[in-house]
Amino acid sequence: MKLNQHIFTFILFFLAFNSYATFKDQNAINVFIEQMQKKHDFKKTDLERWFDTVEIKESILKAISRPAEGMPWHKYRKIFITESRIQGGIKFWKENEKALKKAAEKYGVPPEIIVAIIGVETLYGKHTGTYRVIDALSTLGFNYPKRSKFFLRELESFLLLCRNEKMDPLNPTGSYAGAMGLPQFMPSSFIAYAADFEGDEKIDIWSNTADAIASVGNYFAKHHWQKDQPIAFPVTAKGDQYKKLLTSGLKPDVTIEDIQKLNITLVDPVPAKTKVKLLEFEQPDTTDLWLGLNNFYVITRYNRSPLYAMAVFQLSQAILGQNTKTRISLEE
């Protein structure tokens, strides 16, 4: 019995080893190393040492094949619009009020939106990801042909940001897709938008909530967030003429004047020349219709999904509403 058990263990080890050996495309890694040497003057010995430790993860490939954005809205909403996430947002706001106020003043982005982004992304820093970023990006860059070019660019950006920030590339952790820290920035976004809140010449979006808050504010500002402007409105429609406006893309492409000609009724008044995007969100037995304005489109630049943007918007409104009620009750 013991002999058979040893044989079985050896077979499992052999299969696992060979699966790993064939799964990892060493030639592609060698090409990448050579490019990093020539383009960015990295040392070959450093690159080889880092990639010798890289583990290609099957679990990452499985995870990226079933994103939550593939769900219908009524199921997706239940993940993010919960009482615990709302209360967590109020708590995070209270604990980081100074940083949120400063970010709102500097970038024009309201605190509830920044809080909601961090709430949706990582539950206020509780779930920032356990994969080493270098493993995640290497797995998807070298073994996920569908988006290989994108993830290899992100791997390049990751090594550059580690050099800039004086971090060991083997240490940072993140999501299965290589998104990092409280705001889940991809490496290229980190380089372009991550902000140093305290001016200490170091950006830490993993454990410094102020840097994370400022980084989200800067991201939205750079994507043309319009201060004090609305985000989205619910609408109703008669007949099915409205369906001709349910086109691909997320950028506002018609005016209020245009949609009103198709028997669409606004719940709230909006100027006739305002550009909007008509969106529908699936409920169990019907659909909700919404108009997304410029700021809704800006949220989709963070994650190119209308479900994601609507979850952020509705969570932000729930947090704002309850936070306002709490403040009023404390003042009475």
* Helical residue percent band: 55-70%
Topology as H/E string?
HHHHHHHHEHHEHHEEHEEEHH
Briefly note the CATH topology name of the domain at 16-65 and 129-193: Helicase, Ruva Protein, domain 3
Label the structural class: alpha+beta
What's the overall average pLDDT, rounded?
Answer: 90
- The CATH class designation of the domain at 16-65 and 129-193 is Mainly Alpha
CATH architecture verdict of the domain at 16-65 and 129-193: Orthogonal Bundle
Please list the strands of the largest sheet in the order they lie side by side.
4-6-7-3-5
Low-confidence stretches: 5-23
| Strand content range | 5-15%
Overall, the morphology is: globular
For the largest beta-sheet, the strand count, sense and barrel status come to: 5 strands, antiparallel
Radius of gyration: 23 Å
Q: What is the β-strand count?
A: 7
- CA-to-CA gap between the ends? 75 Å
CATH superfamily of the domain at 16-65 and 129-193: Bacterial muramidase
